[in-house]
Amino acid sequence: MSFSSELFKRFRQNIQTYAIVLALLAIWILFALLTEGRYLKPQNISNLFRQMSVTALLATGMVLVIVTGNIDLSVGKAAGLVSVVAAFFQDDFWHRILPSFLERVLANQPELLEAILPIHPLTAAILSVVLGLIVGTLLFGVLQGYLISYLSVPSFIVTLGGLFVARGAILFVTQGKTIAADQPYFEEIGQGRLDPTIGWVLAAIVIVFLFFNMFRGRWRKQKHGFELSSIYLDLVTTTLFSLLVVGYVFIENMDKDLAREGIQNQGIQVPVLLLVAIAAIMIYASDNTRFGRYAYAIGGNREAARLSGINIRKQVFWVMILMGFLSSIAGVVLASYVGYGTIAAGEGYELDAIAAAILGGTSTLGGEGTVFGALIGALIMTSLVTGLQMMNVPSSFQYLVRGLVLVLAVYADVTIKKNQ
After folding, report:
1. Closest CA to 379 of 60, 30, 51
2. What ranges do the domains of the chain cover?
3. For 323-348, what is the mean pLDDT?
4. Contact predicate 378/83, CB 8 Å
5. What distance, in Å, lies between the first and last C-alpha atoms of the chain?
6. What confidence score (pLDDT) does residue 290 get?
7. What string of DSSP letters covers 117-159?
8. Residue 193 β-bridge partners
9. 291: left (phi over 0), alpha (psi -120 to 50) or beta
10. How much of the chain exceeds pLDDT 70, in percent?
């Protein structure tokens, strides 16, 4: 098969993925023209990836939830609750409530009190993150997952209830006030940057891994007798991804706009690095593990999956736990990025996460969807919002555009499936 014919064949097989990538490029070009090039400045590109991190973290988990035929409406407020819990521990607990308590209890043991207080900022940050992850995973992962999988309560109802519970819990924790979360070490999670040299080292490692994985995949296919695709096509694809990695690191490391603002430590942003690591794990888990294959099997044909011996209840339970854990990570990043916890924390993120997954090709009927597509979908949603804000478009029209884009994406998904 010739290079051109195989390229066309691969394009047809992955038409949805390529379509959303082309849509993203079209959006960037359009806003670049409308903003006289300001949209594609390094500073704005850098901000795009940082702003999409919370939505993308939620979307990576939402893919498997929707693939199994379920939905999670609580993820936004779950992340919001974790953000205010983490902020509460950062601002109040370790620096006010606990010291006051220990001073009363250990009043007669000054040496022990002096050894404990003050709480080191790194210790406070680690404990705040751990406690936030535990709260979010147990409440929105384990509890909701049990109700959905083992008590057979519809996921729509359970997670809608979870959304209301999270709203009430946020009001209880914040008491209607803003809680600061801009403590040392903790703020690095959402606002920190890596040293430029480390960024280039990581880029080199990623590129080596991409080519290694490509050749390893071809070797495994040949070993098991599968037909190999064109080596030139695989090389072009891998090289393209490598160039994207180099381009992103170059933008982050050589951002002159940041230098003019006095920010010396340019480099890859920590939340983006965290997102890439989690996305890589999720992509591998969904494509190469029994856990991922079972999730797609359940969404594709639930009865056939049951008859083949898949424990559907257990599988859905773990998918919901994973979603709760990812919501908790997103909440920690949100608190660190924003720098405080408020009663509005996480508002609307559940809709953005669902929209990102669907824009990325996840079928509302279940059984189909990719984590990579969800990442592109999250970037499209963030790109739309940023572009419209740069053009000073009223918020009412921003929501209108986002809604139209989502409806068009679902319509395109249905049309493609009908044609197939």
Report:
1. 51
2. 3-192+269-419, 193-268
3. 91
4. no
5. 23
6. 92
7. PSPPHHHHHHHHHHHHHHHHHIIIIIIHHHHHHTS---HHHHH
8. 269
9. alpha
10. 91
**Distance between CA atoms of residues 126 and 9, nearest Å:** 49
The pair of three-digit structure tokens given for residue 178, joined into one six-digit string? 């803003």
Please report the beta strands in 335-391, taking only residues with DSSP state E, as ranges in sequence order. 340-341
The SS3 assignment for 279 reads helix
Instruction: Tokens for 10, please give them.
Output: 């691969």
| 59 neighbors 356 (Cβ within 8 angstroms) | yes
Task: Between 299 and 19, name the one with better pLDDT.
Answer: 299
Q: Which residue has the tokens 């599988």?
A: 315
Task: Give the up-direction half-sphere exposure of residue 341: CA atoms within 13 A in the CB hemisphere.
Answer: 33
Both tokens of 411, joined, read 């319509």
Residue 316 pLDDT class (50, 70, 90 cuts): very high
Mean pLDDT rounded to a whole number for the chain:
85
Residue 1, pLDDT score: 54
Question: Which pair of tokens denotes residue 133?
Answer: 């992850």
Q: How far is CA 380 from CA 80, 132, 152, 248, 331, in A?
A: 22, 29, 35, 17, 21
pLDDT at 323: 96
Phi, psi of 119 (to 5 degrees): -70, 130
Lowest mean pLDDT among 101-105, 124-128, 356-360: 101-105
